Amino acid sequence: MSGHSKWHNIQRRKGKQDAVRGQLFTKLSRDVYLAAKEGGGNPETNFRLKVAIERAKQSNLPAENISRTIAKATGTLEGVTYEEIQYEGYGPQGVAILLDIVTDNRNRTAADIRHIFKKRGGNLGESGAVAWMFTRRGQITVDKANVGDSEEFMLTVIEAGADDVEETEDEFLITTSVELFRPVRQTLESMNIAYEDAELTYVPSTTVELSDEAKDEVFDLIEALEEHDDVQTVYSNVAFSEDDEDE
């Protein structure tokens, strides 16, 4: 796995269940907030909001929380104002780290993130330091159990505009451009094929291989960053495997 996505990892880890669940709800709510603030409160005309709501529902975020968050974002209910920013930095071994941040206090968050990097052998960089190493892409994960004819499925998805379909033992990982993410997703829906996850993410242009010891150092930094409430998603250019994530 080339990137390191919050939405995949936080759901796979066990332990500290109550804390993780509360933290996940916070991040999902902020995702809904930003989507509604950017494109309005109607998911039928705001695709980003539709995806955010679906992800929130999949993680059992209460419907009343979703509605209240949308109301705050659209100004019909008073609440805290959040902004979306991106931080860049370097981890141990000089690996590239890209962060999606949602905060109501930019200065506080910057100080916190800088401290996390420094404490774990990395450093927070300037804008543009590592972003050039990543490309914005759409990724859709489909469980192979939901697919009948694999060859026909892959051909249909490619014809719909997917750039690549990676097949593993249990699933298909579909990669698209940002522009064709929605059409490919709609193609799956028209085929009545359920997907496990669909998101716009950042994919590194190249990945770096590390020793197990070095990988543990990077993973420690990533976990600490993910545990911060203002960090929505962490991306890196380390070639993590599924085994690494499950340890």
TrEMBL record:
Please report the stretch or stretches of sequence annotated as the TACO1/YebC-like N-terminal domain. 5-75
Which residue intervals define the domain TACO1/YebC-like second and third in the entry? 82-238
Main localization category: cytoplasm
Record-linked InterPro entries: Integrase-like_N, TACO1_YebC-like_2nd/3rd_dom, TACO1_YebC_N, Transcrip_reg_TACO1-like, Transcrip_reg_TACO1-like_dom3, YebC-like
- Could you confirm whether the keyword Transcription regulation appears in this record? yes
Instruction: For this UniProt record, give its keywords in alphabetical order, as a comma-separated list.
Output: Cytoplasm, DNA-binding, Transcription, Transcription regulation
Protein localization: Cytoplasm
A Pfam family of the record is TACO1_YebC_N
Q: Name one GO molecular function term.
A: DNA binding
Q: Family assignment?
A: Belongs to the TACO1 family.
Q: Which NCBIfam families match?
A: PRK00110.1, PRK12378.1, YebC/PmpR family DNA-binding transcriptional regulator
Q: Which HAMAP family match?
A: Transcrip_reg_TACO1
**Protein name (database record):** Probable transcriptional regulatory protein NZD86_08050
Q: Which organism is it from?
A: Alicyclobacillus dauci
